[in-house]
């Protein structure tokens, strides 16, 4: 059993398109397509039409890239192919009945123990006593995110009490493995959310300079009015990569698989050609490792 994608060679609507198929079952195809954020409306009887920009992410998520002839041969051998004549005569399979992914949820990573910091950063407060968690959630909401999901780990019970009302919480059980574990926990929770989310904006709790205008600039870096499943962008500060990072749904599986330790998904973002969004004029982008004021 395999999900296959061919080379993007068919022009339409100002870009090139490829085909996504299964050589075993439509159930396998639909499950893979939904996880990757491929819209249900792009299903055409025996395949999904996918734009060229999605092909690398689909391959990274597990699709086998083959030539057009090989894809056609294996689709015919599977018995799933619907001929053009059958399509014209109306004998075609209906698209799956699920809503297209929409909206952006912020994923706020706040799971670490903060060893150099003096304690978990999820418990930190500013000089006026306001929790960092409250400040980051407010900035993400005011910047345009539809929802906020906070990923907790170390001292999760205490940290949960500081999460503002309306924000969701997931606990990364393997938080001690580093930022990558928190990222995987957050993206896994979003992947299971209903209705499906189009994009995640990943931010860190230890960036006190995160402001709504930074969030708005990164969200606005995509060419469409709202982020889509193919969106991929990250903030830079004086040319240095930083956060927040915009991850369209099509990139979640590949980014989570590529993340290691505290490196997160940086190598994947670079290789996948993430759009770089300079934000140095809005914020310095530094995280904080000085000893904090911690919640009791």
TrEMBL record:
<feature type="region of interest" description="Disordered">
    <location>
        <begin position="82"/>
        <end position="102"/>
    </location>
</feature>
<dbReference type="InterPro" id="IPR025109">
    <property type="entry name" value="DUF4031"/>
</dbReference>
<dbReference type="Pfam" id="PF13223">
    <property type="entry name" value="DUF4031"/>
</dbReference>
<feature type="compositionally biased region" description="Basic and acidic residues">
    <location>
        <begin position="86"/>
        <end position="95"/>
    </location>
</feature>
<dbReference type="Pfam" id="PF12804">
    <property type="entry name" value="NTP_transf_3"/>
</dbReference>
<dbReference type="InterPro" id="IPR025877">
    <property type="entry name" value="MobA-like_NTP_Trfase"/>
</dbReference>
<protein>
    <submittedName>
        <fullName>DUF4031 domain-containing protein</fullName>
    </submittedName>
</protein>
<dbReference type="InterPro" id="IPR029044">
    <property type="entry name" value="Nucleotide-diphossugar_trans"/>
</dbReference>
<feature type="domain" description="DUF4031">
    <location>
        <begin position="3"/>
        <end position="77"/>
    </location>
</feature>
<feature type="domain" description="MobA-like NTP transferase">
    <location>
        <begin position="106"/>
        <end position="270"/>
    </location>
</feature>
<dbReference type="GO" id="GO:0016779">
    <property type="term" value="F:nucleotidyltransferase activity"/>
</dbReference>
């Amino acid at each position: 059993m395999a999900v296959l994608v061919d080379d993007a060679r068919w022009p339409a609507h100002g870009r090139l398109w490829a085909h996504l198929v299964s050589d075993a079952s439509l159930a396998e195809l639909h499950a893979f397509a939904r996880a990757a954020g491929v819209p249900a409306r792009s299903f055409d009887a025996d395949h999904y039409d996918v734009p060229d920009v999605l092909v690398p992410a689909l391959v990274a998520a597990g699709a086998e890239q083959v030539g057009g002839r090989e894809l056609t041969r294996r689709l015919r051998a599977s018995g799933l192919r619907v001929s053009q004549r059958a399509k014209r005569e109306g004998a075609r399979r209906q698209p799956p009945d699920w809503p297209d992914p929409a909206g952006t949820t912020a994923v706020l990573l706040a799971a670490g123990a903060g060893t150099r910091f003096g304690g978990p950063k999820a418990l930190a407060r500013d000089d006026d006593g306001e929790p960092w968690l409250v400040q980051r959630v407010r900035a993400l909401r005011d910047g345009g995110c539809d929802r906020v999901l906070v990923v907790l780990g170390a001292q999760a019970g205490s940290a949960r009490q500081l999460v503002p009302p309306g924000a969701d919480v997931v606990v990364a059980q393997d938080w001690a493995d580093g930022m990558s574990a928190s990222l995987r926990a957050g993206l896994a929770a979003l992947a299971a959310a209903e209705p499906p989310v189009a994009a995640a904006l990943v931010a860190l709790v230890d960036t006190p300079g995160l402001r709504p205008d930074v969030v708005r600039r990164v969200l606005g870096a995509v060419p469409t009015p709202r982020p889509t499943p193919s969106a991929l962008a990250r903030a830079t500060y004086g040319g240095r990569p930083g956060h927040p990072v915009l991850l369209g749904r099509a990139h979640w599986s590949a980014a989570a698989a590529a993340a290691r330790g505290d490196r997160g998904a940086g190598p994947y973002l670079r290789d996948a050609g993430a759009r770089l969004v300079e934000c140095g004029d809005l914020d310095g982008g530094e995280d904080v490792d000085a000893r904090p004021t911690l919640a009791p």
